């Protein structure tokens, strides 16, 4: 049900490329596609709204805020090293190295439009 999903909108420059990235590499499924303007993809309780240049969501964004920001979606994975290997084998590039802290380990990557995605593995309890 849509009311049980947390929705995030990412403005992208190429909706089909974003769909391919999120479904191929990060385990999302397509709920609805009106490409090239818009798509709605989900992974668990996360609904990611991919808004292309022709979409109302992108047109409502002020030009001064058109660049991808520092905000990111946070995807929990059970084995960060395995995910890094799998994605690297598929040609996905990462931003920096794995960062570890008391809560776990994480690494950043970007989607084709430059939006940040964080892969996170929680520390053993």
From TrEMBL:
Keywords: Metal-binding. Residues 4-122 form the VOC domain. InterPro entries: Glyas_Bleomycin-R_OHBP_Dase, Glyas_Fos-R_dOase_dom, MMCE/EMCE_epimerase, VOC_core. One of its GO terms (biological process) is L-methylmalonyl-CoA metabolic process. One of its GO terms (molecular function) is metal ion binding. Pfam families: Glyoxalase. PANTHER family: METHYLMALONYL-COA EPIMERASE, METHYLMALONYL-COA EPIMERASE, MITOCHONDRIAL. This is VOC family protein. It comes from Amycolatopsis eburnea.
């Amino acid at each position: 049900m849509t009311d049980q999903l947390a929705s995030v909108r990412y403005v992208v420059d190429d909706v089909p490329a974003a769909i391919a990235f999120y479904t191929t590499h990060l385990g999302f499924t397509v709920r609805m596609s009106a490409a090239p303007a818009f798509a709605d993809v989900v992974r668990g309780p996360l609904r990611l709204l991919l808004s292309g240049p022709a979409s109302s969501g992108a047109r409502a964004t002020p030009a001064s805020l058109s660049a991808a920001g520092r905000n990111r979606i946070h995807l929990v994975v059970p084995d960060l090293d395995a995910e890094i290997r799998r994605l690297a084998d598929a040609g996905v590039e990462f931003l920096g190295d794995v960062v570890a802290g008391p809560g776990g380990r994480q690494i950043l990557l970007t989607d084709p439009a430059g939006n940040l995605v964080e892969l996170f593995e929680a520390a053993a309890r």
